[in-house]
Design a protein that fits this description.
Layout lengths: L5 E5 L5 E2 L15 E5 L9 H5 L24 H7 L8 E6 L5 H13 L5 E5 L4 H11 L6 E5 L3 H11 L3 E5 L16 H18 L2 E6 L12 H5 L2 E7 L5 E9 L7 E7 L2 E4 L3 H6 L9 E8 L2 E13 L7 E4 L3 H15 L6 E7 L11 H13 L7 E3 L2 E2 L5 E2 L4 H10 L4 E5 L13 E5 L2 H9 L1
Parallel strand pairs: 4-8, 4-9, 5-6, 5-7, 7-8, 13-17, 15-16, 17-20, 20-21
Antiparallel strand pairs: 1-2, 1-3, 9-10, 10-11, 11-12, 13-14, 14-16, 18-19
Helix pairs in contact: 9-10, 10-12
Bound molecules: adenosine-5'-triphosphate (ATP) and magnesium ion.
């Protein structure tokens, strides 16, 4: 047997080397050099390539524009994340933990698209067609326009695409597909890159909206080369806590829309249901009248969401106290604790502090700072917060409370859910009329906010 020549390629930056190295000579990252068989580049000769006319460079003025055509998927939460719907010819990557519901989401989307008369090809490399059929039975996703194929050989998948001519294509998952002319195993850097490249060409040339399902690594990133995320138009992550039934769909890259929006679903026996009122869901298990629990009005894209922010401050016997946070940036929590120590005289050097956003939501706006400060101070002093309060605002280094955007939208959401008071930055109450039925407490400093919330 002829010996296959190998080289080593960095999965982060693509630097090549003839021998293995622990550290990438290109980007300096450790343990990123992956073995790959040497291949010579052959220009693709697919059906689409032959049909394509030779392109000439054009002046940008002469290029026709207009809005991207969008195909609404029938799942409003998915449309919201995509920025209105699927763009024909776009390539999407959906990643998520094992068993989180990726196949369920895509099968439901496929069904919704077939109800609009579109043709869908669902290629599963992980499950047999019978398994897919069983799931479709359970989800009520049967349609004569939904074609299912169990195949991992890219050439055969291409034949099926030419045969079915779908409007929407699902590849579940990209790590199982292989190109027979590439010598490495399915899921390797070379295979994933080559196959994604081929799907990109198929998507662009035939105008098929294509979704690739991607496995994630232990750290939560999509497995395979980093390059994968550069090649596709959208990268979506499907997340959720194993012990909860709700799931969040989040865009980390979107060439056709914003990446701020999240979609919220509830997983049930008959599939994913859209959650129309997320605040209600996230507050459903909230304890009332205890210390360390505050409700924050956060913006998830264009939508206000109320979530509970919990803190626990407890004495420690270790010399360096622990600072743990989940759902919030660790650095911001350290900052808030430093402000409480320095400006409020709350000494926490011998205290562990844990901060948690209930329900597995991730808050990445500074507007959550003030709620974190109130929760931590409430737990530290063991004073309960008021169950009818909502808090938001950014905390500055001198202990001042800074304005945040969309205050009116946040206040209205609090009113809608029956809260009685909102503690917010003074600067944020300018330029709009507060609605009747809710009391606004405008604060300038963290000290003011703590006085209002805890006393
Ligand atoms: N009969 C059932 N009743 C209720 N929920 C179910 C049922 N069968 C499956 N589920 C839910 O569906 C989830 C699996 O969904 P799905 O197979 O779509 O996940 P996946 O992300 O595609 O997983 P994988 O990584 O294995 O491909 C399960 O974790 C479970 O929550
Ligand atoms: Mg699956």
């Amino acid at each position: 047997m002829a010996k296959v020549k190998v080289k080593y390629v960095c999965t982060d930056c693509g630097t090549e080397s003839p021998k293995w190295m622990g550290k990438c000579p290109g980007c300096g990252a450790w343990n990123t050099m992956a073995e790959e068989a040497e291949t010579t580049f052959k220009a693709p000769v697919g059906r689409g390539e032959r049909l394509r006319a030779k392109e000439k460079a054009k002046s940008i003025i002469d290029i026709e524009s207009g809005r991207e055509p969008r195909v609404p998927t029938g799942l409003n939460e998915l449309n919201r994340v995509l920025g209105g719907g699927l763009v024909p010819g776009s390539l999407l990557l959906v990643g998520g933990d094992p068993g989180i519901g990726k196949s369920t989401l895509l099968l439901q989307t496929s069904h919704a698209l077939t109800s609009q008369g579109l043709k869908v090809l669902y290629v599963s490399g992980e499950e047999s067609v019978r398994q897919t059929k069983l799931r479709a039975d359970r989800l009520g996703a049967l349609s004569d326009k939904l074609y299912v194929l169990c195949e991992t050989n890219l050439d055969l998948i291409e034949e099926a695409i030419a045969d079915v001519e779908p409007d929407f294509l699902v590849i579940d998952s990209i790590q199982t597909v292989y190109r027979p002319d590439v010598a490495s195993a399915p899921g390797s850097v070379a295979q994933v890159r080559e196959c994604t490249g081929q799907f990109m060409r198929i998507a662009k040339v035939n105008g098929v909206a294509t979704v690739l399902v991607g496995h994630v690594t232990k750290e939560g990133a999509i497995a395979g080369p980093r390059l994968l995320e550069h090649m596709v138009d959208c990268v979506l992550y499907f997340e959720g806590e194993r012990h909860h039934s709700y799931r969040l769909l989040r865009a980390v890259k979107n060439r056709f829309g914003s990446t701020n929006e999240i979609g919220i679903f509830d997983m049930s026996e008959d599939g994913l249901r859209e959650v129309l009122n997320p605040s209600e869901l996230f507050l459903s298990e909230r304890p009332l009248g205890v210390s360390g629990s505050t409700v924050v009005a956060s913006m998830e894209g264009s939508r206000p969401v109320l979530v509970e922010l919990q803190a626990l401050v407890a004495p420690t016997h270790f010399p360096s106290p622990r600072r743990m946070s989940s759902g919030l940036d660790h650095q911001r929590i350290s900052l808030v604790i430093a402000v409480l120590e320095k400006r409020m005289g709350m000494f926490m050097q011998n205290q562990d502090a844990y901060v948690n956003v209930a329900g597995g939501v991730k808050l990445d706006e500074p507007a959550a700072d003030l709620a974190a400060a109130v929760s931590i101070a409430s737990s530290f002093r063991d004073l309960p917060t008021k169950p009818y309060d909502v808090v938001f605002g950014e905390v500055g280094l001198t202990g001042e409370v800074r304005a945040v955007s969309r205050a009116e939208t946040r206040v209205k959401e609090a009113l809608k859910l029956g809260f009685k008071r909102v503690i917010l930055p003074e600067q944020s109450i300018k330029g709009w009329q507060p609605p009747a039925g809710i009391e606004l407490i405008a604060v300038r400093t963290v000290a003011d906010a703590l006085r209002a919330a805890l006393e």
